[in-house]
Specification:
It contains twelve helices and ten strands. The protein is an alpha+beta fold. Strands 1-4-5-8 form a four-stranded mixed beta sheet. It has a four-stranded antiparallel beta sheet with strand order 2-3-7-6, covered by helices on one side. Strands 9-10 form a two-stranded antiparallel sheet.
Length: about 375
């Protein structure tokens, strides 16, 4: 594993940083406060190639490695975690799934447009009664002469309102557990498909998260991904890659917390000296820096393992678990260093703490990541 960035990776980092500073930073507090979806920024991410970074150039993708994706995700999340999760879902969960499992017809029809940002995708596995127990689903796709008839409810769907299509996991056979789950491409304009109102969230407030409702939705047979019964395997495999993206998002939040803490500690004076001169503040900054760099190395190792074809699922779980905990700790310390000013919205650092929490919850809670790691240790 080479720790030096390539020239291409340096360019990606600078492009993502410039985009975040010029397009995402203006209005960030207003978008968070008023839950404004960043439509123009999402369009721009598509134009810059950030919506299909790892997909094949044959389908308008960037053909980049996972490390490049991690670099871009961190830079964007450092400014706007909500925008980064929109990007993450389209890349890690939608484009990557279609790249690996879709047939050539599906790739040409959907993937080639998702990678350019002409379409936006969403991924739906969870249901109201099945959180971490994802296989305990009720959504059912009944086979018909022309395809499938889909009924059920999905929740916690990022991009649920603003996406053009959704990858949906549903039962095609009951009473056989996860072996009866299949995966479908469902377009938003299919009859019987409706979207619930956006959830009122603690953080990442300018991204949309909704329930999805399917009432006798007719799905063409050609929209089945892979074979019947492959859906659970497809979804779990995809989530391994998704966790690398969430680890990168957490890194961005943590790095933003460190930089804000350093800048404030140099400016804020108490007892006639900058608070950065106090050992207690210095120790906090030091611990944050060490933890963030450690999380970054772990995340890049998981990305490198994925790129080299090694089994990376456990390291993706490690990276997601550790980076999310580092983000939560760093953002909390950032608020602490800012004192009372950190608790009000004007300084923007309380947003970092609110945004950090979700990284410990979605795409598998920290407890689920520990189970994944423990099972590997004890096998």
């Amino acid at each position: 594993m080479n720790f030096e960035l390539t020239q291409e990776q340096k360019l990606i980092k600078q492009t993502a940083r410039d985009f975040a500073q010029n397009e995402l930073l203006p209005g960030i507090l207003d978008r968070d406060e008023n839950k404004i979806w960043p439509a123009e920024a999402v369009k721009k991410m598509g134009e810059l190639g950030f919506m299909g970074m790892m997909a094949s150039p044959d389908y308008n993708g960037g053909g980049m490695d996972t490390i490049s994706y991690v670099i871009a995700m961190e830079e964007i999340a450092k400014v706007d975690a909500a925008a980064s999760v929109i990007m993450s879902v389209n890349n890690s969960l939608v484009c990557s799934l279609l790249q690996k499992y879709a047939n050539s017809f599906q790739k040409e029809k959907y993937l080639s447009k998702l990678t350019k940002g002409n379409l936006l995708g969403a991924f739906s596995l969870s249901e109201p009664q099945s959180g971490s127990d994802a296989s305990n689903m009720l959504t059912f796709a009944k086979k018909t002469s022309e395809g499938y008839l889909l009924n059920g409810t999905k929740n916690w769907v990022t991009n649920g309102k603003n996406s053009d299509l959704v990858l949906v996991a549903a039962l095609t056979e009951k009473d056989v557990g996860h072996k009866g789950i299949s995966c479908f491409i469902v377009e938003k304009d299919f009859d019987g498909f409706s979207v619930g109102k956006p959830e009122k969230k603690l953080g990442i407030r300018s991204s949309d998260t909704t329930e999805l409702y399917f009432d006798n939705v007719e799905i063409p047979e050609q929209n089945l991904i892979g074979n019947e019964g492959d859906g659970f395997k497809i979804c779990l495999s995809t989530l391994d890659g998704g966790r690398i993206g969430i680890a990168a998002q957490a890194l961005g939040i943590a790095q933003a917390s460190l930089e804000a803490s350093i800048n404030y500690s140099k400016e804020r004076k108490q007892f006639n000296k900058p608070i950065s001169s106090f050992q207690s503040i210095q120790f906090k900054l030091t611990d944050m820096s060490i933890a963030i760099d450690s999380a970054r190395l772990l995340t890049k190792k998981a990305a490198w393992m994925k790129d080299t074809g090694l089994s990376f699922g456990v390291y993706a779980a490690m990276a997601k678990l550790y980076a999310s905990e580092v983000a939560m700790k760093a953002s909390t310390e950032c608020v602490q260093i800012h004192g009372g000013y950190g608790y009000i919205k004007d300084y923007g650092v309380e947003r970092l703490m609110r945004d950090a929490k979700i990284t410990q919850l979605y795409e598998g809670t920290s407890e689920v990541q520990r189970l994944v790691i423990a099972r590997d240790l004890l096998k």
